[in-house]
Amino acid sequence: MQPVKSLTAYRPYWAKRFGVSPFLPTSRAEMEALGWDECDVVLVTGDAYIDHPSFGMALIGRLLEAQGFRVGIIAQPDWTSADDFRRLGKPKLYFGITAGNMDSMVNRYTADRKIRSDDAYTPDAAPNKRPDHAVTVYAQRAREAFKDVPVVIGGIEASLRRIAHYDYWSDTVRRSVLADSKADLLLFGNAERALVELTHRLAKGVPVERIRDLRGTAFMAPPGWLPDESWAELDETTAQEVGADGTVIKFQPRVPRTQTVLRLPAYEQVKNDPVRYAHASRVFHLESNPGNARALVQRHGNRDVWLNPPPIPLTTAEMDHIYGLPYARAPHPSYGDARIPAWEMIRFSINIMRGCFGGCTFCSITEHEGRIIQSRSEDSILHEIEEIRDKTPGFTGVISDLGGPTANMYRMACKDAKIEAACRRLSCVYPDICENMGTDHAPLISLYRKARRIPGVKRILIGSGLRYDLAVRSPEYVQELVSHHVGGYLKIAPEHTETGPLSKMMKPGMGTYDKFKAMFERASKAAGKEQYLIPYFIAAHPGTTDTDMLELALWLKRNGFRLDQVQTFLPTPLAIATGMWHTGKNPLKRVSAKSEDVAVVRGERQRKLQKAFLRYHDPRNWPLLREALKAMGRADLIGNGKKHLVPAWQPEGTGMSTCARGPKKSAPAGRCATPAKPLRKTRRP
Q1: Which carries the bigger pLDDT value, residue 284 or residue 565?
Q2: What is the pLDDT of residues 362-372, one digit of tens each?
Q3: Which residues of 641-670 are buried (b: 16+ CB within 10 A; e: fewer)?
Q4: What is d(CA 329, CA 239) in angstroms, rounded to the nearest whole number?
Q5: pLDDT tens, residue by residue, 664-685
Q6: 196 and 268 housed in the same domain
Q7: What is the dihedral of CA 564, 570, 574, 580, to 10 degrees?
Q8: 277, 292, 325 — which closes off a domain?
């Protein structure tokens, strides 16, 4: 693999003489105003162009600009022909393709496979401005526009579809996006290192097909291809395994791990064999630590998809460099007064770190950003707060978030670098917090206090989800958070109350939630504030039975929660839980035809039922819940008392009319004689 080189150690490309662009150009007229006759790199994205580090194309574009390259952006192109991909002319080095900040299928469809009516990353939230499987479509159109220009794909869609993967929307196992898009190279994860090195090599005239040693990259290779004779290939069945208790079953390869490639079951095998798919998912996720991950290869027809090990995490200095680049911190002027919801959401927020070591199986953050936390320095973050204060229109003195994938993993790391490099655990906090994981919240407390003291800042809120199993280890942090940074409500994500689903999610039990809730309420009372926790829960997650959802509904009722927004499990590409959902097997343990089966909620009716349990208070759900409770032998929960889950009566116009004893003869057809009583008022945070 290529040795690690700092992002700031490269000699700038000659075009640096053109200086910094107010906005990266999106038209020939803007290029000409900058004195450019061509772009070195043209970036194509499914999102509107917002020049802010929270948006991938702006971050990548500004990083390449700082290296001296001329970068243009084609945002949300017309994909029905190649014409719009010629807008900026022929790029000198390559096309960089991304679907945007979200997978295009997640962005465009709901968990019920219905087309969404809006798109938060589009001006005025207009829908249908990007195609399905946008990376593949954009890459094909770019190739049509200029056949001899290399095509490099990246971003979250490419990253999470880099091997054969289950696609929920087509209900099939799809090939790697590399095979479908016919791109020259795929960059996965946090791709800054690979991107900068790749661009400089291409600028020196190295052909893209010869660039095969960059971490965090994937490419198509001939069958059996190896970098040189010193490498060895291992069959996937000999992969090092980890027991359910985290114990490593040792395996000594014939050559060093750095010169070992591990062969996964082929696409043609995992496509039709759920057990092999689940096994491939397990092996893939065990090879996620950049300190010990091996290269992976997977046959697709008569070619192989080759994945180099994940990228080495960025240092604090490199993170500061990236987030300190001269962003305009605004949407491109061509959008005029159009409202872009994603921009409105983050315009006053700051990303302080990357990565997550939680390992929740339904989440793909670890697969994309890694489990090693990459944090910015205090000075960098405080400077960005001042930038928002001084340059962002509409700032009223309130910072909406200091966070990232989680609110409180800032500067947390393994206590021993050697242990971290050798670790094969999928989570540092499940089933318990690892004794080697540092959970000190002092750096975050210091950051909060300094941020509050900046002139012109009235308040700092925390909008990112809180990892409460970490927070309970620091009463001082909870006190600081609750006293100064909660705007009445704090969102946390227990996800469920029952051990069955929680074990498949790799989430802590409710005992930890109860401990945090008590700390939160004490701190709120001490601060003289009336504040509430907003818990998030998931319905229909693998491993969840109807009985589990009933118990969760009863917990919600006992605790006085009436949830407005609830989430049904969405199988996103490459997540461990998606492997469970597709195969009915548990990749958290060694997989075989006789290994543990996982309960999976597939049918539309059962998914609706589990979601209905989360909204037990909605009259529209009562007919479905009554029917289910009777079938489950729990008709005792139907009635009009405080201990009942749903009433025996049904308000008019709220679903199918249902009566406990049937309508009286004098009752009008279609409605119950029992009066439609108002719902009991339950305090809802």
Answers
A1: 284
A2: 998 888 899 99
A3: eeeebbbbbbbeeeeebbeeeeeeeeeeee
A4: 46
A5: 333 333 333 333 333 333 333 3
A6: no
A7: 110
A8: 325
